[in-house]
Amino acid sequence: MQAKVFRVETFYYHDEVGRPSREIAVPTDATLHDLADAILKSFNFDNDHLFGFYNNVKKWTRSKTRYELSSDGPYGEDCPGVKHTLVSEAFPARKRRMLFLFDYSRDWRFVVQYLDVIELPDDHPLPSVLASIGDAPFQYENMRDWEDYFDDGEDEDENAEEEGDDEAESQNLLLKNQERTQT
């Protein structure tokens, strides 16, 4: 079975080994939407925002060739959509690079380069990550802080028991008050 291989590198994000990158294999008949899903999964991102592919890697707003998710909807833009565009159309030759821009407000940028067509065993799952360098960035960087913010050091199971104890104590107090008012 043949597969197309892409190198995907974060654009702005750096860690101690440099820019995290992935080599991803997708079916030869994959769409840009399929490629986007594979990219996002390889970096542990949720596919929960708009995105696009742009031929101008440094200044995406000046791209002459672009493919956007928003073009697939009822209010489509004046460019092709990602759900019906094959990767072979957007990346017609080896070494072709495009910017994959994900989540326009957070501005996640990945440089995607088409490397080659390879032969894989028929039972090899696609899409798949063939190589991974560096740790994936957190999609929502500040989410790490939220865990600490809400962690009060108590186990949830302990809290459930305490809440049950509080309810039992409240009922005991109610019964005692009722007994006093009856006598």
UniProtKB/TrEMBL annotation:
Residues 149-169 have a biased composition (Acidic residues). Coiled coil: none annotated. It comes from Paenibacillus phyllosphaerae. Residues 149-183 are annotated as: Disordered. This is Plasmid pRiA4b Orf3-like domain-containing protein. Residues 21-162 form the Plasmid pRiA4b Orf3-like domain. It comes from the Bacteria. InterPro entries: MM3350-like_sf (IPR024047), Plasmid_pRiA4b_Orf3-like (IPR012912).
